[in-house]
Amino acid sequence: QKDAASYFKCHCLRTFDIFNSPVKINQISLDESGEHMGICSEDGKVVALHPRFSSSNYKQFVTGGNKLLLYEKNWLNRWKTSTLHEGEGTITNVQWRANLIAWANNMGVKIYDISTKQRITNVLRDNVSLRPDMYPCSLCWKDNSTLIIGWGSSIKICVVKERGHTELRDLPSRYVEIVSAFETEFFISGLAPLADQLVTLYFVKENSDHMFRARPCLDIIQPLPEGYEEISSDALTVRNFQENECRDYRLEHSEGESLYYIISPKDIVVAKERDQDDHIDWLLDKKKYEEALMAAEISFKNIKRHEVQKIGMAYINHLVEKGDYDTAARKCQKVLGKNMELWENEVYRFKTIGQLKAISQYLPRGDLRLRPAIYEMILHEFLKSDYEGFATLIREWPGELYNNMTIVQAVTDHLKKDPMNSTLLTTLAELYTYDQRYDRALEIYLRLRHKDVYQLIHKHDLFSSIEDKIVLLMDFDKEKAVDMLLDNEDKILIDRVVEELRDRPELLHIYLHKLFKRDHHKGQRYHERQIGLYAEYDRPNLLPFLRDSIHCPLEKVLRHFQNCRMGNCRRALQMIMEELEDVDKAIEFAKEQDDAELWEDLISYSIDKPPFITGLLNNIGTHVDPILLIHRIKEGMEIPNLRDSLVKILQDYNLIRKNICESCHASILPSGGVVVFHCRHMFHKECLPSPGTIPGVQFCNICSAKRRGPGSGILEMKK
Fold first, then answer.
1. CA distances to 314, 316, 649 from 280, in Å
2. Are strands 93-97 and 268-273 parallel, antiparallel or unpaired?
3. pLDDT per residue over 421-430, tens digit each?
4. Could you give phi then psi for residue 644, rounded to 5 degrees?
5. 8 to 32, 269, 557: CA distances (angstroms)
6. Do 234 and 3 touch, CB atoms closer than 8 A?
7. CA-to-CA distance for 252 and 258, rounded, in angstroms?
8. Sheet containing 154-162: which strands, arranged edge to edge?
9. pTM assigned to the model
10. Containing H/E element for 567?
11. Helix, strand, coil shares of the chain as percentages rounded to 5?
12. Rounded distance, CA 518 to CA 522, Å?
């Protein structure tokens, strides 16, 4: 038998008592049903048999020899003989199908149509160098119109077809077309159809060097237009095969039972298609375990001598012997199924050969579960040498597979040797989580700054456990921590968060800032504190905060800025002037700071804004010389309430004593027009003499006689 899969199962019939003849059997013939058999021998005897191997009452048959004779029974049940062909030598093979009879002689192959009593073709022999008596022709019908011819080493497939009416004339109504022809590497002893393939019985060509005759072979081939493909091959054991020639073998087949009869001088071998059990036997014998397992799984309802699980176990054993432990472990999942005893046996076998890791990922973890000791044994094995693998199993295996506390203790023992091992710490946190010891798990996650810490808090509602861990959470991820705290204000109160962050003002600012963005009122009691936090950590957002907050009195803002450095004071003054546009508060702030540069900034900002100038004139008092402001006012600018402002300035400088005009000595009323000189002499406007030579400038009459100086005149102001 060749290495290709065997298609047939053969057994030899050592004795054949139904036809006892001292001479050679030339041919047997079976009808289409396989129920009747005809046998002929070299002495010319022909026997027709029915299923019980007794005489059959066939009404027609043909015989060969030098003539092709047709035997037919007439109405008197007597045989009538007709000669269909003669004159071309011995007829070596005859095959009859429906209305067509094919026969072979030394010249070639003929086909006769009984229905029309016409011979319709003559297919000549190809290799005339081969002796026809040593290499006889093989014939078989595939169906009612397809004839297969094998002669020597060549095969032809012929199809009988109907002629068109226009082609008839004097020609037969049918003709033959050769649809395939090819040469083989062997001498053909017999042919039979098998679906669209061919069964060939062949005789191996002799080796001229050693005159060696091999056993005959039964092959299945796939015909192609100009060749063939071998599908399977079986070498047959028959008695005295060393002495046999090509002509000593014949092949007949029974379509009804899919049986093939191989005839040799001493034996008749019956071949039939292998069933799945036979196929699996062959695969196992060839150590093709995977294919055998697949075949058994596909045909599990039809196999009788094999069991899928036993074949699978044989496959696993084979893989283990080969050292392919990973594949063997993977196959356990399919082969062992829900057999817990087999599973545990395999686990211990893998432990014995030091391959527990290989089988670990395939252990049952669903409805079927092994004893906890089995899983714990594997976890301990990983803990010895593979922390990452151990962590993977803890994540993948349900916690109920093993005793959780046993594994926690084992991990704790290993952490004593390596206390900062992040893999072991993370795994321990997962074990604590499964054991519902969330506080312990949370501590580990926070220490490791593990990304799952927030998921753990949300999933298990651990907000009460993180009240004293807010700083740790914000140090880990400020944005996530603040969002979580604000999303759960009902579980962690704002006051508690502020209290926890009291020593970390930079974190407190982030929390309160986000709180203010969400709601301007919720953290109103902390708005005053936020002024300093913004000033220290987030100055660009200070002014927007002050603008949007209605819970932050300006007095408190000013009080805060009193403690600022000069740079900050100038920014604060700018904020009051530009954002709040409150000159009174700006003057108050400048007075409190008592800084000349700050007053200069205030005057510079106000000099083109009449309402601001009025405010300055009314409030500048004795902190700054009013002349500094008055000299910088543009000529012709309308100043609201200027008279009242000037009066207030004079009062601040104690310029008004007796309120007497130095010219007429009458009382001066605040509502009247008044001119005051730097010398502090005061006049009714109408009591002043005519202006001097300098346009717009008046001089005190009293002092003008004494001297003319920069303090004796004042620009005329309009009310």
1. 12, 16, 121
2. unpaired
3. 988 998 898 8
4. -60, -35
5. 20, 11, 104
6. no
7. 11
8. 138-141, 146-151, 154-162, 174-183
9. 0.47
10. helix 566-574
11. 40, 25, 35
12. 9
